[in-house]
Design brief:
The complex is a heterodimer of chains A (471) and B (640). By secondary structure, chain A is an all-alpha fold. Chain A is built from 20 helices and 2 strands.
Chain lengths: 471, 640
């Protein structure tokens, strides 16, 4: 490998080095708390480096590939992970986590390496390896609170259902290989056809990835796992993990499955309607804020499908753009939930009653994030949804857009329930005034700035649009 | 780009608004005022610099005509290739002139408010909104496209609403702010429809394309005729409706007198010098279309303008609240500007009316702001608006007295003060177009001189009234703007305006038309003499004059009962006949349907909760069923 090839794999290699450094640090540093700033600053450096000295190209005979678009996706994920790390700093300092601080970072970075490989894969095996690398350490992370029964249960549930879905997906991949005799994306995108066997393979494959994005009816693990996992892992799952899967799904559908576009748009059509509607219907009734956000994130994933179904370069651009906005909005909401859960241990929507009177700033951030998720202009979320709907409407899916609009209205209702709890409902024993740590504050500031700026920063969308491609 | 810095002229007031608005309660109160003034000083400097640069350096790059220059442009929302909304800065003679007017008046009002608002509870809020207004108004005049203009148009309306309701504990102020907002909003509905029709016909929002009526955008414009006017004509009349609303033209004038409930500096800035002339600016901006494509629509502008000017002048003679007199006078003067636009043609000499209108806008801004600020100084000193409670104030307040006198001379059209020159051009343009307009405006000139000097003599001469405490002269922060504006009112008439601002950008020279100027000076002096005789000393002459007018006086005093008429139409006809049935339908049909949907949604949500059992086996079986279902649908039912 010459130096140039190192640059092509920069994101993965840097992360691997970070993991190595942390392993050594774990052995040499006695005061484990000091690992937190080291890990966060190392990752911050990695995030920053992600924007410079990038090169496109392919390695290992096409098994690994990268392009400006893929680098952008990785950078978006990096930003999200950076925010998650900032939000988890205070939680990690708690005595019960004392001995496993570096584990947290190492496992989390491993999953991120997996996701990066998954997005960069140029071949099915590589893709599968990346996917598994992203999943297995994730189960360990979900079960991070080992002595908490719910957390352990969630870990087991995740690993079992993930194994189940990978099995089905692998079956689909093998059928694909059996039909066309190749696992390389570049070849497949030229030779694939819509034979019944290929469609069977497509459905198996799609259901496997739908599991990762938690699309209905492959979503049932989501609520239990999200509720059981520590808050920061939940936010990581609902934003980063989901985002990576959305990115690769979009790329694959737009390349190797493009000959089957008529089939998969119909499948996505059905799944989109189911996902939006079921996600919303479940979200309405939730009492636990984490479960609530879990179902709301299912519904959001349904909206994202509207961009994919657009099948144009505008569609792809809106998917990426929406993911970017979604990262800031959802992490904003999760950031507040994590702060409150850290300091008061409360996770029910009822507990948020009267929050505005004791913690006005947190309530405002939460409100802003929820408004952005609901898509209220002029915040970024509005533009994201608006472009998604435009992309679908451009292809003539008016009914789908109509259903999406109705669902957006329903979602507004339950987002407002939380806002109402914070601002209007009275509470005799409100959550006491919280003085949050600097890490969490910094994370929330990033989210708020992101929510505000992206909507008005038109050239960003232009940039994404210029990188995107359609069928 | 040479003019890209012009964006900061608008952005600086915006930044001030954000700082004062967000942190106004945290920082020291007096600091908010100084910050506002400092921001305006920079913005004013920048706009003077722009004006110098534009008029003397680069404006006439081609053919000796002033060009439209795009100083800054940013694509904000892109819907399709042709449909996109930009935000930018368009510089041409009228927008550069407006930049100068707005920043000058706003700076003066900011300085003045330092003294006037001192000790007020909403001090920092006031300055924040003042900056918001300035930002909106600047954004409006530099708009590169009609959509941007519309957005800032509404922002201007919003900030006017916020400022009129500054004393929000006073029910009358709240009512006035609502009235101003609703009336102008109603007119803006016409504006919006007009914009939509216009852009539908031409396929663009861009002023650069719109203002080129020979261009391709107008080639295939529809020739459909509705009620004797082309579609384009209707679009322009609807747009004019929006302008008439903001500029308080008849029949949308009813909000302006009530808007005087706001603090006096606000009246000076918004309801005299800047916002109310937005309507005139709008017509001027779209003037090439009006003049070339739909001269009929322009005739409507002239008629409305002419009628408004005499209508308001008659009412102004009867009012006793000094700010309301000034409000009606504003309406009357804007009527002049509208009329001038309406009688103007396109092109150098034919465009005399256009140039005169802009000239009058410019001079009027100076002396009307001065009148309001002077009135504010008086109200500040003796705490009343009522003319009958004033008298002989000249010995207590020398500077307001002198400056007010200069302003009165200027608005009455006495040479060599500013109003004389601009009004003379308007009268010449009216005379060339149609003599009826000329004679109407000639009478208005006399009425103007009469009611202005009625005000002047009533306040500063006459019998001394009992005051709560001895009236004191205003502080320097208030007298400085008065002196500055008085000097401006005295000299800006000598600016060779036709060399800078013309309908097509080509400068031309104007001559003095003494055969028009002399009669107008004559009637103005006549008006002043009548006022002198009536009001210099207390006498029963005014009452005798009133008696001779009989019930006409009563009608004028009650503003010809337009408020009552509108209230009747709104309450008895619209609310009762239309609104309440619609409200019933909304409550019992629409709401009930929505409630039903909500109930059903909730019910389903409750029922399907069981699907989420927490059992992994069940999750897997749902997963597999989903896969199988998709296979059945897509392989057996569709493909085969």
């Amino acid at each position: 490998m010459d130096f140039n090839q190192f640059i092509i794999m920069k994101h993965e290699l840097l992360l691997t080095i970070t993991v190595m450094v942390l392993l050594v640090a774990e052995l040499t540093i006695n005061d484990k708390k000091r690992i937190i700033p080291i890990a966060i600053s190392l990752f911050g450096l990695h995030t920053a480096l992600g924007f410079f000295w990038n090169e496109s190209g392919a390695l290992f005979g096409g098994m690994y590939q990268t392009s400006e678009l893929i680098i952008l996706m990785k950078n978006i994920l990096n930003i999200g992970v950076f925010i998650v790390l900032l939000q988890s700093a205070n939680w990690l300092r708690k005595p019960e986590n004392f001995n496993k601080i570096s584990e947290y970072f190492i496992l989390l970075f491993s999953t991120l390496i997996g996701m990066n490989f998954m997005i960069s894969s140029g071949e099915f095996l590589m893709f599968y390896l990346g996917l598994e690398l992203a999943t297995i350490p994730m189960a360990a992370l979900v079960a991070y609170n080992t002595f908490n029964q719910k957390s352990a249960e969630a870990g087991v549930k995740l690993i079992l259902s993930a194994a189940f879905s990978s099995g089905i997906m692998l079956f689909g991949i093998s059928l694909f290989y059996g039909q066309f005799g190749s696992t390389y994306f570049q070849q497949l995108s030229m030779i694939s056809m819509d034979t019944p066997l290929a469609i069977l393979a497509l459905i198996f494959f799609l259901s496997g990835l739908s599991f990762k994005i938690s699309l209905v009816p492959f979503h049932l693990w989501t609520a239990d796992v999200y509720e059981g996992a520590p808050v920061n892992i939940t936010s990581y799952l609902s934003v980063i993990s989901k985002g990576a899967a959305v990115f690769i799904l979009t790329i694959l559908l737009f390349t190797i499955f493009r000959t089957m576009v008529e089939v998969w748009t119909n499948i996505i059509y059905i799944i989109a309607i189911l996902t939006m509607t079921i996600g919303n219907l479940f979200a309405i009734r939730q009492q636990n804020i984490k479960r609530f956000l879990a179902f709301s994130s299912i519904a959001q994933a349904g909206f994202i499908l509207l961009g994919i179904i657009g099948t144009s370069s505008l569609g792809m651009a809106t998917v990426i753009y929406f993911m970017l906005i979604y990262i800031f909005s959802n992490l904003g909401a999760f950031g507040v939930v994590s702060v409150i859960s850290d300091y008061s241990g409360k996770e029910n929507i009822d507990d948020y009653n009267g929050l505005y009177h004791s913690n006005p700033k947190l309530s405002l951030v939460m409100m802003l994030s929820l408004f952005s998720l609901a898509g209220i202009p002029p915040i970024a979320g509005f533009f994201g949804k608006f472009f998604l709907f435009t992309a679908a409407a451009e292809q003539g899916y008016y009914w789908l857009v109509l259903i999406a609009v109705i669902n957006a209205t329903i979602s507004l209702y339950y987002y407002l329930i939380v806002v109402k709890a914070m601002f209007i409902n009275k509470n005799d024993t409100p959550i006491a005034k919280i003085k949050s740590d600097n890490y969490a504050r910094f994370a929330l500031v990033i989210c708020v700035v992101g929510i505000f700026i992206i909507g008005f920063f038109g050239s960003l969308f232009e940039y994404i649009n210029h990188l995107s491609f359609g069928i | 780009m040479e003019f890209s810095y012009t964006i900061y002229i608008a952005l600086i007031p915006f930044a001030v608004f954000v700082i004062n608005g967000l942190f106004g309660s945290k920082i020291k109160e007096s600091f908010t005022g100084y910050l506002g003034v400092a921001g305006m000083v920079v913005a004013t400097y920048l706009s003077y610099f722009t004006a110098y640069h534009y008029f003397f350096k680069v404006g006439k790059a081609v053919d000796g005509a002033y060009q439209k220059v795009i100083g800054f442009n940013m694509e904000w929302l892109r819907f399709t290739e042709s449909l996109h909304i930009d935000i930018g800065v368009l510089l041409d003679p009228i927008s550069v002139m407006m930049l100068v007017v707005i920043t000058t008046i706003s700076l003066m009002v900011h300085i003045y408010s330092l003294g006037y608002m001192k000790g007020d509870k909403g001090y920092s809020r006031f300055f924040a909104f003042l900056s918001l207004f300035t930002f909106s108004m600047l954004g409006l005049v530099v708009a590169t496209n009609i959509f941007q203009m519309y957005m800032f148009w509404e922002l201007v309306g919003l900030s006017s609403y916020l400022l009129i309701a500054h004393y929000y504990q006073k029910p009358s102020a709240v009512a006035a702010s609502k009235k101003a907002f609703i009336v102008t909003r109603f007119a803006d509905l016409g504006f919006l429809i007009g914009i939509l029709i216009l852009s539908y016909l031409t396929g663009t929002f861009d002023f650069n394309i719109l203002c080129n009526p020979e261009g391709p955008a107008f080639m295939q414009s529809s020739s459909a005729v509705f009620l004797g006017l082309s579609t384009m004509g209707w679009a322009l009349i609807l747009i004019f409706m929006g302008g008439a609303g903001k500029s308080a033209m008849f029949p949308f004038h009813i909000w302006l007198p009530d808007a005087m409930e706001g603090p006096t500096p606000v009246s000076a800035l918004i309801h005299a010098a800047t916002m109310v002339v937005a309507g005139v600016f709008l017509i001027a901006r779209l003037f090439p279309i009006f003049a070339i494509v739909a001269p009929n629509a322009l005739e409507v502008v002239a008629v409305i303008g002419g009628f408004s000017s005499i209508f308001a002048a008659v009412i102004a003679c009867t009012q006793t609240d000094i700010k309301r007199i000034l409000a009606f006078s504003t309406m009357s003067q804007i009527g002049y500007m509208m009329l001038a636009l309406g009688v103007s043609g396109y092109g150098a000499e034919a465009g005399l009316g256009f140039m005169a209108s802009m000239f009058h806008l410019f001079t009027h801004a100076m002396f009307k702001a001065l009148l309001f600020l002077g009135a504010g100084a008086i109200i500040h000193a003796i705490h009343t608006n009522n003319l009958s409670e004033m008298g002989n104030l000249r010995k207590y307040m020398p500077i307001p007295h002198i400056t007010f006198l200069i302003a009165c001379l200027a608005i009455s059209g006495i040479p060599p003060f500013a109003g004389f020159f601009s009004k003379d051009e308007i009268l010449v343009a009216a005379y060339n177009h149609n003599q009826i307009y000329f004679w109407v405006e000639w009478i208005v000139a006399g009425l103007t001189a009469f009611y202005m000097f009625r005000l002047y003599f009533g306040i500063f001469w006459g019998k001394e009234k009992k005051y709560d405490h001895t009236p004191h002269d205003a502080p320097f922060s208030m007298t400085f703007p008065l002196i500055f504006l008085a000097i401006a009112s005295a000299i800006v008439g000598f600016i060779p305006f036709s060399n800078f601002v013309t309908s097509d950008g080509l400068p031309f020279d104007i001559q003095m038309h003494w055969e028009i100027a002399l009669p107008s000076i004559g009637i103005a002096i006549f008006g002043i003499i009548v006022a002198f005789v009536f009001y210099k000393k207390e006498s029963d002459l005014p009452n005798r004059a009133v008696a001779s007018f009989g019930s006409f006086y009563k009608y004028a005093l009650n503003k010809f009962y337009f408020d009552e008429l509108y209230l009747f139409v709104a309450r008895k006809v619209i609310f009762k006949r239309f609104s309440s049935p619609i409200a019933w339908f909304d409550r019992h049909i629409i709401d009930a349907t929505m409630d039903g949907v909500a109930t059903i949604t909730n019910y389903i949500a409750l029922k399907i909760k069981g699907l989420q059992s927490g059992q992994l086996q069940q999750y897997a079986s749902v997963f597999v069923s989903g896969v199988l279902l998709l296979i059945v649908i897509f392989i057996y039912l569709i493909s085969v």
